[in-house]
Amino acid sequence: MDTKQKHMITELYKLKNIMLNENSPRGAKICKDAIDYISSQFEFEFPVRKCYWIGIIGETEHWKLPSGADSPMRKAIKKAFKEITGHDDEILYSGWSADADAVERILKAWN
Fold first, then answer.
1. Is 35 exposed, middle or buried (0-12, 13-18, 19+ CB in 10 A)?
2. Tens of pLDDT along 43-90?
3. Distance of CA 26 to CAs 4, 12, 84, 96, Å?
4. Which site among 5, 27, 79, 106 is 20 to 30 Å from 98 CA-CA?
5. Per 3-state DSSP, what percentage of the chain is helix, strand, and coil (rounded to 5)?
6. Which residues have a Cβ under 8 Å from the Cβ of 24 and sit 6 or more positions away?
7. Cβ-contact 89, 78 below 8 angstroms
């Protein structure tokens, strides 16, 4: 693969990220498909950094939560993930069991 072809793949990769940032999963998928096709033709594997979305939301009083309160949150996250990335998630950890101490520990680990 020559420099011009590598440059083309790099620009497609940048365009894919722009599409994702502008909430255009269809455009991002088209770019990804083009990257995959071009890469396969030239035996080039573009370096991919895997990442995970992490969020903390709250707070509320635990006793106010109805039974099954995690389900609607989980479904919304799974739906949004698929709309943004174009594929299903591989893992999803969630739950209402974290208290202020747990959130503080998570935030410290994040930084």
1. buried
2. 666 667 778 888 889 899 999 999 999 999 999 999 999 888 888 999
3. 26, 14, 9, 33
4. 79
5. 60, 0, 40
6. none
7. yes
